[in-house]
Amino acid sequence: MAPIISIRDLTKTYASGFQALKGVSLDIEEGEILALLGPNGAGKTTMISIVCGIVNPTYGQVTVGGYDVVHDFRKTRAMIGLVPQELTTDMFETVYNTVSFSRGLHGCPADPDHIEQVLKSLSLWEKRNSSLRELSGGMKRRVLIAKALSHKPKVLFLDEPTAGVDVALRRDMWALVSELRKTGVTVILTTHYIEEAEEIADRVGIINHGEMLLVEEKRALMRKLGRKRMVLDLISPLKSIPGRLDEWRLKLASDGMQIVYEYEPNDNPGALMALLAALETSNIGVADMSTRQTSLEEIFVELIGKKP
Fold first, then answer.
1. Of 298 and 287, the one with more pLDDT
2. What is the mean pLDDT of the segment spanning 138-159?
3. Contacts of 119 (CB under 8 A, 6+ apart)
4. Which end of the chain is more exposed for a tag (fewer CB within 10 A), N or C?
5. From CA 34, how far away is CA 31, in angstroms rounded?
6. Contact predicate 53/98, CB 8 Å
7. pLDDT in tens, 247-280
8. Residue 281 lies in a domain
9. Are residues 143 and 167 located together in one domain of the fold?
10. Is 107 left (phi over 0), alpha (psi -120 to 50) or beta?
C-alpha cells in the first residue's frame, strides 16, 4: 500500500539564506502515529507547513494521498487537519460557530452531529455558546484541535499541541489520538514532552539542523540505540574497583555502596553472568541488583549531540 504522505528530497531555503530543510525524505503510512522530535529551529514546523501547503518548498516533492501538495493543493489540504502552535482564532466568535465555520472553509456541508461529537470529545460542549475571549488558554487550545477535526481529515498534524497546557488537556488529547488511530486517521505530532512520544507513537523521527537523522519504529529504536544499566547494591562499601574488573568498565558510586554496569541490550547474556562470577571471585558481595533501559529522551539527547 502506498504511504499516505510521501516526502522526497525536501529542501527549503528562505530569502535570508537560512536553509531550514536539507533534502529530507520520509514516508508516513496510513493510520500510524509518528512523533517528530527535534530542538527549536530543527525544521519541524517548516516541514509541516510545506505538507499543509502554507509554505512552498525550494526543491523536492510532497504528496498526500497520491496528490502533489503544490499542484493539487485543494485536494491535499482537504485531507489534512492542522493544530498549529499559535492560538489563532476570532476572539469574539462562539466556540460552536468557530468550529462549524472551519468545516465550511474546507467545502464540507453542515454536520451538526459531527460537530457535537468533536466538541464533546474535547470537553467543549458546555462551552459551545461561549465566545473565545471568555475561555482559558487551555480551552482555546481545545478549540484549535476541534477546528482541525471539523472536516474529518485523514491526516492530523499536531504541532506542539500540549505546550503550556494543563494535565487534563494532555489526558484528553492522548485519549482522542488513540480513538483517531482506531478510525484510520494518520497522526503526526511534534512535542517537547518526549515521554508522551514514548507512550503513544508507533514510529519516531528525529530531525536536527534541517536533516532527518533517523526514522525508526519506536521499540526497534529502543533496542538498537538504547543501553541498559545494571545497578548492583553492595553488602559493604568499596574504596575502588579492582583492576581485574576493568574489562566491564564499571562505575562506582561516591559512597562506594553501588556499582553501575552499562551494556547494550543485544550483548551476550553470558557476559552478565561472567561479571557476577568475577565479582564473587573478587570477594565483592552483592546484596541486590536492578536494571533499567535507556529512555527515548536520553537517545534523543545523544543523537542531536552528535550534530555540530
1. 287
2. 90
3. 95, 96, 99, 125, 128, 146
4. C
5. 10
6. no
7. 888 999 999 999 998 877 665 657 777 888 899 8
8. yes
9. yes
10. left
Cell numbers representing residue 82 in the block: 492542522
Please say which residue of 171, 192, 223 terminates a domain.
223
> At residue 102, does pLDDT exceed 50?
yes
Give the model confidence (pLDDT) of 40-86 as tens digits.
Answer: 888 999 999 999 999 999 999 999 999 999 999 999 999 999 988 77
Among residues 41, 45, 42, 5, the alpha carbon closest in space to that of 25 is found at 5
**202 and 234: one domain?**
no
Is residue 308 in a domain? no
Taking the C-alpha atoms of residue 242 and residue 21, their distance in angstroms, rounded to an integer, is 50
Query: What's the structural domain count of the chain?
Result: 2
Grid cell 547474556 in the structure block, residue: 269
- For residue 307, CA distances in Å to 211, 302, 303 come to 10, 10, 7
Under 8 Å CB-to-CB from 183, ≥6 apart: which residues? Answer: none
> What is the domain range of residue 210?
5-223
pLDDT tens, residue by residue, 214-231:
898 887 777 766 677 888
Note whether 146 and 155 are within 8 A (CB): no
Residue appearing with cell numbers 460537530: 115
